[in-house]
Structure formats: structure tokens, C-alpha cells
Amino acid sequence: MSLLDVNHLDVRFALRGGDVRALRDVCFSLDRGERLGIVGESGAGKSVAAFSLLNLIAKPGYIAGGSIRFDGQELTTLSDRALRKVRGHRMSMIFQDPMMTLNPVLTIGEQMVECLKAHRRISTREARGISLNKLQQVQIPSPEARLDQYPHELSGGMRQRVIIAIALLLDPDIIIADEPTTALDVTIQAEIMALLLELCEKHNVGLILITHDLGVVSQVTQRMLVMYAGRVIEQGPTREIINDPQHPYTQGLINALPQMATPGSRLNQIPGSMPSLSNLPSGCAFHPRCSFVERADGSRRQACHDQVPEFVTSGNCQAACHMVAEMIASERIPAEEQD
Fold this sequence. Notes:
This protein has a domain at 4-228: P-loop containing nucleotide triphosphate hydrolases (Rossmann fold, 3-Layer(aba) Sandwich), CATH 3.40.50.300. Helix content is 36%, strand content 23%. The chain contains 13 helices and 12 strands. It has helices at residues 46-53, 80-84, 98-101, 108-119, 124-137, 143-146, 156-168, 186-203, 214-220, 238-243, 248-255, 302-306, 322-338, and strands at residues 4-15, 18-30, 35-39, 61-70, 73-74, 91-94, 174-178, 206-210, 223-228, 231-237, 311-314, 317-320. The strands form 2 sheets. Strands 6-7-8-3-9-10-12-11 form an 8-stranded mixed beta sheet, with helices on both faces. Strands 2-1-4-5 form a 4-stranded antiparallel beta sheet, with helices on one face. Helix 4 packs across helix 5 (124-137), helix 5 packs across helix 7 (156-168) and helix 7 (156-168) runs parallel beside helix 8 (186-203). It is globular. The two termini are 38 Å apart.
């Protein structure tokens, strides 16, 4: 059994005009020590999926259906008190902006000690010792001095290292990292991701990495999910998806990488933009932007307009696409005719 199993997760936001579905039928799993990437454009539902795991969705958002099982325990039905024993303890989260996460009026040491004492019955001295050890693990220079400094006295990269140290304080089984390097420059981003990968491998910690950077995903994760308009549209081993993407949206994301364009020419881009969740197109939500709705012979795939695609298996990957289903079906026909 997987450490984390998410099945048919449905998250909605109750608005005046009616409920808006932010996540639809999201399913995935995570084994102990495994690294999973979740990618997609802004508005795809990546962060909502991450926040749902710890029930951190702000009202009027709520989990409308589905299951989140962690180590055999159903999280969606836990009381707030019971959930606090999981949140921050066995499942930790690294947020995008460390300055929004750290309390500006408390020293780094005070915040780390407070976190430890909220979950363990230990003395302040013991908690401070553990905090110092974690700061050393994330390779912060002069960790003893940093414990008595305030967040504004640290650089952006050092603040993010502090956040990672706090996430590791209670030796969690899973770390959820929501675009952890967004606010950092490129060289610091590489250092932080290398550090996070090293720590996860060393301590056998599962990692869920939320990002729009396919380059980072390809280097850090073993499996990946591609999300679009609140739904998973492709999933499988990272290397296979990067090398041979099945869904047209995934192909578009990879082709949009700067290294995929001819030097001196315009960057490739997916036409159009993500649809509003309150007004999704019928059928496949991606079809208004998809160049494969029309076949090579000029005919149109009507199913793209009319039916939400089901997942089909291609190699070790799954893609929710009518074109992929059609291609797989056409490959099977000759073999069946020979039989």
C-alpha cells in the first residue's frame, strides 16, 4: 500500500453564483521516499491539490468529495485536533514566499522551538539543540548565530533554507513543496533544489513538488502529474513523459521551454489561455487551444467537443486525450484482424 493515496478528489469554492470546481476527480499516490512532481500553468489546480492534502484550503473552499488516505488513515474525516497531529508533524509544507511564512517579530530560534514544543514534550534547551542540528543539515553558515536573528536579517536563500529546516524539524514522512524557489534567483534556486533532493534521499522522505518549471521536475522527481483546469490530464514516470509526452498540452509545455526554440526566433507558446473554472468548455477542457482537434485529413474529432476524455494507457504513462485513445485503438486493429 502506498504511503499516500488520493482518490477522486473533488474540491469546490462556494460562490454567490454557485459552486466552482477547483479540482475534479484527481487521483494519485506516493510511496515512501518517492518524489512526485505536479506541473501545469497558473490556475491549473496545483496548489489547491497540495493545500487539500493538509486541509489548508481557505473558505469558501472545501473538499466536496473523494478520499485522502495517509498511511492507512483517512484525512478528510479527521477533526481539526487530530489533523494537527499530522499537519506539520508527519506531513510538512514549504510555501512559495519565506517572508510570508516566517513570523517577522520572532527570531528563527523562537519559531523553531515553538514548532517542536507544539508537537513534542521536550524542554526549550532540547528543542533549541534539535533546531541547531537542522540548521546545520541545511548548510546555513554560522547556524548558532542564525537562531537569534530575525527573518529580515537573512537573505532570501537563507530564509528558504530555514523554511526547509523547519519542515524537517519533526522528521516528516512527506514534504510538500509549493514552488519553493519562485522568489529566488537562478543560482540560489539550483542550490535549494539540490539541497532538498539530497535531504529527501538521505532521510527517505517523500516529496511532492509543485512547480511550473519542467526543467526542475525532470531533474528532481521520479514521477509527475500534468494538470489542466483542475484535472490531471497525464501522469507517469517523469523521464518517459519528458522524452515522449502523449497529451497535446504536455507537448505544448515542453515545446515552450526556451531551449526548444531556434536561437534568435520567437519562443514557442500554447495559443490562448487557461479557461475560467466557472465557465469550462464542454468535452475536453483543452480542446479550444488544441491543434489536434482537427485530424490530418481535415475532419474533426467531435468527441473533443462533446465528451470528457477518460485515461488511456500508453507505455507506463496515462493520458486523458481522445487523440491518444484513437491512436492506440488504430494500432490494435491490425493485430486483432490477424488473430
